[in-house]
């Protein structure tokens, strides 16, 4: 029976190894609920949260649920979340002539943080839309009558916001709200609500938007623009045609639409360009745009957009674009078909209602550019593998240091999170987090609070706070800390702790020899060929003659090689499919003595497990040992991710 279970374990391990082999690059380490700091709250109902925003106080966030807001305090997870009622102004109107019903009930589909402790949110009752700007410092909060938001509230009433659509509130003396509308019917495109409502022209193309990026120009406010990123259904029915085509579009913030008889209330400044992400040499490209994340810079042209793609082969990729490169295409490229449009301004104009009629007809006829937008420096993807990523979030808060690195968070379709460090065109998957109680729950939103290194994630059933700055999880040795290549962490001489300038870390090369050259190597590492782990005690185990037994080794890094050493000789059977498990097939005098599991990664070695086996002939041991064997195999099977 034991051998049968063992063979089953090997089969599961081989399947897992095969999966990992086709999913490279694999995360160096994996952290489950038991292995890293996570706090959580349940989310009731089946409505996806419209989003989460950070409150002023640390460790407190607000989730926009279906009918109300909830405030969660992660400093006290046992405390019941505070429910915040949204006092929609429209719901308090008793005049029957009002356009909105007095007994209205809105589902929240949009929430954004404003300045200080204020929120802007909008909801729909499937007939109308209402918006509210709330001051959370007031008790109880109420919808305010802000003059710069009132035009948004008035102009959006007849529009229906769809769940999950990107939106951007651009605050100014006269604020404007930009909301997308995806699909194949209706007013598909970017809509603006405020003092001048403007929307897309009618068309028959199926488009799905994944992000909006406002770009305000302090040097020239007239040239402020909003960039939209979307995928469009390909109308080419060819066998080798991609199903989706990725695009970026832009509109001017000052665009008021055309005159009364042509393009009235429609964009006159909209231009579209295809995005390219791939490697021309290998003919590998990615056509389905999945998500985008923005890293804003002081200079508008340096702002970067990290775009997540996938292709028909199940691979994902991330390409990086700058607003400067995108604008260059809209400024220099001819229009599709190599068409010139003399008289058509590529810049934003003060008054779009005065554009000549012949130019407006050209705008209505063709707004797609001939040239494609390519990644920064004409580079290829900074990351591509067989993982099915669904969302991307980017943190460059560590770039205030001399060794500039960017950290990417990528959610997988099964609900896990990959933490990836990026410098220029090089990436490294630091860790995989498994944050949810129920596997295969999709990540809907996530948000990082850089000062505390807390990542907030939502599924349909949970809100999780994940400590991505938990440096102690990498190990208790300088080499462990350096091999993590985590820019958040460094070695201070005794612990792996949040990184400062005076700590040891080598994110680019993971050169653990800096621990020795700096003198920060631990004393316990200097006197042994194989430095021990946290548990330095040799475990003694007595076994009956001819019995079978498993020795287990804690496998941490998936990029290390694990070897079992018996009596200082590498003669023990090492299981390639399960390096942390050693089978003693038949206990005999030859198997007695010391067995150590040694890991080696980039020349750094450690003893992770240390056992001394002895023969035991006392009666009654066989039964208890068999039970122990069964428990070991069961534990191993549970740990197998493939079965």
UniProtKB/TrEMBL annotation:
Domain Sema: 28-468
Domain Ig-like: start-end pairs: 532-614
Signal peptide region: 1-21
GO cellular component: membrane
Keywords from the UniProt entry: Disulfide bond, Glycoprotein, Membrane, Signal
Principal location class: membrane
Subcellular location: Membrane
InterPro entries found in the cross-reference section: Ig-like_dom, Ig-like_fold, Plexin_repeat, PSI, Semap_dom, Semap_dom_sf, Semaphorin, WD40/YVTN_repeat-like_dom_sf
A UniProt-annotated Pfam family: PSI
UniProt-recorded name of the protein: Sema domain-containing protein
Organism name: Pagothenia borchgrevinki
């Amino acid at each position: 029976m034991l051998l049968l279970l063992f063979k089953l374990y090997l089969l599961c391990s081989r399947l897992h190894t095969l999966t990992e082999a086709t999913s490279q690059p694999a995360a160096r380490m994996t952290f489950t609920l038991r292995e890293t700091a996570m706090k959580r709250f349940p989310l009731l109902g089946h409505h996806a949260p419209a989003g989460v925003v950070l409150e002023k106080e640390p460790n407190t966030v607000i989730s926009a649920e279906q009918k109300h807001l909830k405030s969660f305090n992660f400093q006290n997870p046992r405390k019941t979340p505070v429910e915040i009622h949204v006092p929609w102004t429209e719901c308090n109107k008793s005049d029957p002539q009002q356009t909105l019903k007095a007994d209205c009930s809105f589902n929240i589909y949009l929430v954004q943080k404003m300045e200080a402790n204020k929120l802007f949110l909008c909801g729909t009752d499937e007939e109308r839309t209402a918006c509210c700007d709330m001051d959370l410092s007031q008790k109880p909060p109420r919808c305010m009558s802000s003059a710069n938001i009132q035009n948004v509230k008035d102009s959006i009433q007849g529009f229906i916001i769809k769940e999950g659509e990107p939106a951007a509130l651009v605050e100014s003396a006269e604020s404007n709200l930009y909301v997308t509308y995806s699909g194949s019917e209706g007013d598909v495109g970017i809509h603006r609500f405020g003092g001048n409502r403007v929307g897309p022209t009618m068309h028959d193309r199926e488009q799905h938007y994944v992000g909006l990026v406002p770009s305000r120009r302090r040097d020239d406010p007239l040239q402020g623009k909003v960039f939209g990123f979307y995928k469009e259904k390909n109308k080419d029915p060819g066998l080798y045609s991609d199903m989706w085509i990725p695009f970026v579009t832009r509109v001017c913030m000052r665009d008021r639409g055309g005159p009364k008889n042509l393009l009235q209330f429609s964009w006159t400044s909209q231009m579209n360009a295809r995005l390219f992400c791939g490697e021309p040499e290998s003919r590998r490209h990615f056509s389905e745009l999945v998500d985008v994340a923005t890293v804003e810079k002081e200079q508008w042209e340096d702002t970067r957009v990290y775009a997540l793609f996938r292709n028909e082969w199940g691979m994902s990729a991330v390409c990086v674009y700058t607003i400067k490169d995108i604008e260059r295409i809209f400024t220099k490229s001819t229009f599709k078909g190599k068409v010139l449009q003399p008289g058509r301004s590529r810049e934003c104009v003060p008054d779009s209602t005065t554009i000549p009629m012949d130019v407006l007809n050209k705008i209505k006829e063709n707004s797609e550019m001939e040239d494609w937008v390519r990644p920064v420096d004409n580079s290829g993807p900074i990351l591509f593998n067989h993982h099915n990523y669904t969302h991307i979030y980017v943190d460059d808060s560590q770039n205030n240091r001399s060794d500039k690195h960017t950290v990417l968070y990528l959610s997988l379709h099964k609900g896990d999170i990959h933490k990836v460090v990026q410098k220029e065109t090089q990436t490294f998957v630091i860790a995989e987090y498994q944050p949810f109680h129920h596997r295969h729950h999709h990540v809907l939103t996530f948000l990082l609070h850089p000062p505390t290194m807390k990542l907030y994630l939502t599924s349909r059933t949970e809100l999780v706070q994940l400590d991505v700055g938990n440096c102690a999880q990498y190990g208790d040795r300088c080499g462990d800390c350096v091999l993590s290549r985590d820019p958040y962490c460094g070695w201070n001489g005794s612990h792996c702790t949040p990184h400062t300038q005076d700590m040891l870390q080598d994110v680019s090369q993971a050169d653990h020899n800096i621990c020795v050259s700096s003198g920060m190597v631990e004393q316990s590492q200097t006197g042994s060929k194989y430095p021990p782990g946290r548990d330095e005690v040799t475990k003694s185990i007595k076994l009956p003659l001819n019995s079978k037994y498993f020795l287990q080794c804690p496998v941490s890094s998936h990029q290390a090689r694990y070897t079992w050493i018996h009596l200082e000789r590498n003669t023990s059977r090492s299981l390639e499919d399960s390096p942390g498990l050693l089978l003693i097939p038949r206990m005999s005098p030859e198997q007695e003595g010391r067995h150590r599991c040694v890991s080696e990664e980039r020349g750094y070695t450690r003893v992770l497990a240390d056992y001394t086996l002895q023969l035991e002939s006392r009666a009654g041991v066989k039964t208890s040992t068999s039970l122990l064997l069964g428990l070991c195999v069961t534990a191993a099977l549970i740990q197998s991710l493939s079965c």
